[in-house]
Design goal:
The protein is mostly helical and about 475 residues long. It folds into two domains: about 1-140, no CATH class; about 145-465, Vanadium-containing Chloroperoxidase, domain 2, CATH 1.10.606. About 55% of the residues lie in helices and about 5% in strands. The protein contains 16 helices and four strands. Bound molecules: 2-acetamido-2-deoxy-beta-D-glucopyranose (NAG) (5 copies).
Length: about 475
């Protein structure tokens, strides 16, 4: 009994800590697990790709569990299969959270569901089966292991041969190391058959400006001031927009990235009576659209290898004198610049929300839940942010990344455009079965990565056989 009380307390504490709790419109078992994922993202400070992976696979497990239950007509409940599927999925990825968080959370939830022993047993075996199937299918994803080395070598090769417009490492003193993070190019998509083929067919007009060129002059001028750390014209609103969108900057920022922004938006705007099925399906579509757009995004980033603002402004080019002490407001230099990942996420998620609601002018207010750095003294707290539409939240993301000094205007615009395009494809082709592919496991293939010889050229990562 003492144990049960303890578990219930843990659940109640989680709800109380879940700073988002008051803003939930639709409260059901699927939403509750989505909130638990948002806590994991925050406590483990997960990167966008990883956090979205958890949100999306939890939702897919829920949706599959509901379909399995409907198809078999087993004697248990929707809530029970959703709970057990979520539990199995999260325990598979975060086994270290099982004892202290996941199982107490499940246990407290089960107490509210009043299930018989056999309903629990059935739900458990069904939930585990669908969740582990989802996990197993992702194990073949070649993305990280085999692409990190080749992309790093492609940068190193050029370190001593700087070409205006191309990405390279920078030596920052006592600051973020210039690491390269390659998470998604060549990654497995969920619905889109192939990112590269998609780009060749649908994004022909994409590409960053050549350097030098009049187009580059425009991008340069639009960012050199507003992106700079110590520009005198910076306003509090600019600082807060940048800090909020990038995440984990100050109290009231998003917990890490726009991924959390959009799941919080979905929890906020879904009507209270939304069914479990509709909730799980919408969360799945959000996550899949974000994921597949990010594979397209990375394919572009590691094909164009465009230079980041600190490289560009410090190095200068034929039409611009070097500004050796130029620093961006939020320093982050881990992947080629074009296009912006944050606006890709927002463009993609914003389009899914518009498709779900059949309109854009749905207003909402979001409070970022980042609790602030443990030993920071900043008193600047970002308050709730109000948006009159999904499109307004996408615009805020664009400005936030420019005010951070992280992306040129063309890159934030193209990120949002590609996200929305891919989201529309995902929405239209949701139930399509995907090809299984003809290639052997990536362990038996070479990943080839080469930087272009000049800015504007596209040389995507390739698998060689
Ligand atoms: C960067 O730092 C490394 C090691 O400190 C040094 O060897 C290299 O010359 C530096 N590169 C530039 C471009 O300053
Ligand atoms: C970005 O470009 C668009 C389209 O040209 C323009 O309307 C907008 O004002 C630009 N934003 C900034 C911050 O310069
Ligand atoms: C914006 O941030 C910069 C850089 O940290 C800081 O110097 C400036 O005081 C801030 N501006 C306002 C109005 O808060
Ligand atoms: C950057 O360098 C310029 C030119 O040397 C100087 O005028 C300016 O004060 C410097 N800015 C900072 C923030 O160090
Ligand atoms: C915070 O303030 C304390 C007390 O003034 C100071 O000792 C500490 O260095 C500050 N920490 C940071 C990260 O600025």
């Amino acid at each position: 009994m003492a144990l049960c009380t303890g578990l219930l307390l843990t659940f109640l504490t989680l709800i109380a800590l879940g700073q988002l709790a008051p803003t939930i419109a639709a409260d059901n078992v699927a939403v509750q697990w989505n909130l638990l994922v948002s806590q994991f993202v925050c406590t483990h400070n997960m990167q966008p790709t990883e956090s979205n992976f958890l949100y999306l696979q939890t939702a897919l497990a829920q949706w599959h569990a509901l379909l399995a239950l409907k198809d078999t007509g087993a004697c248990t409940t929707d809530e029970a299969v959703v709970a057990f599927a979520s539990r199995a999925l999260l325990a598979a990825y975060l086994p270290f959270e099982e004892d202290n968080t996941i199982d107490p959370f499940l246990d407290a939830q089960l107490q509210t569901l009043h299930l018989t022993r056999s309903q629990k047993r059935l739900a458990q075996s069904m939930g585990e089966a669908v969740a582990l199937d989802i996990v197993a299918r992702r194990l073949k994803d070649p993305r990280r292991t085999f692409t990190y080395g080749p992309t790093r070598e492609a940068v190193d090769e050029r370190e001593n041969d700087p070409t205006p417009g191309l990405y390279r490492f920078l030596n920052y003193t006592g600051n973020t190391p210039s690491l390269i993070i390659q998470r998604s190019a060549l990654g497995q998509t969920f619905v889109l058959p192939n990112a590269l083929a998609y780009i060749e067919e649908n994004l022909k007009h994409f590409g960053p400006p050549k350097v030098p060129s009049p187009e580059w002059d425009v991008e340069y001028e639009q960012l050199v001031k507003i992106g700079r750390d110590n520009w005198k014209g910076r306003t509090k609103e600019m600082n807060q927009t940048a800090g909020f969108i990038f995440g984990s900057q100050q109290k009231g920022s998003l917990c890490r990235s726009p991924v959390d922004f959009w799941f919080a938006i979905a929890r906020t705007v879904l009507p209270p009576k939304t069914s479990l099925y509709d909730t799980a399906l919408l969360f799945s579509k959000l996550g899949v659209a974000i994921h597949d757009s990010r594979v397209v995004l990375s394919t572009l980033q590691y094909g164009f290898w465009y230079w980041r603002p600190p490289t560009a402004f410090r190095a200068g080019d034929a039409n611009h004198k070097p500004i050796p002490n130029w620093s961006q407001y939020i320093l982050w230099n881990t992947h080629p610049e074009y296009p912006s990942g944050a606006t890709t996420i927002s463009g993609s998620a914003g389009a899914v929300m518009e498709l779900y609601f059949g309109k854009t002018d749905v207003p909402f207010t979001i409070q970022g839940t980042y609790p602030g750095p443990a030993c920071g003294n900043s008193t600047d707290v970002i308050g709730p942010r109000h948006y009159k539409s999904f499109a307004a939240a996408v615009e805020d993301t664009k400005l936030g990344r420019m005010y951070a000094g992280a992306h040129y205007n063309i890159s934030v615009r193209h990120g949002a455009e590609l996200g929305a395009k891919v989201a529309n494809y995902i929405w239209k082709n949701w139930g399509m079965s995907t090809p299984s592919g003809i290639l052997p496991a990536s362990a038996y293939l070479n990943v080839v990565s080469k930087q272009p010889s000049k800015a504007g050229e596209f040389r995507p990562l390739k698998l060689e056989y």
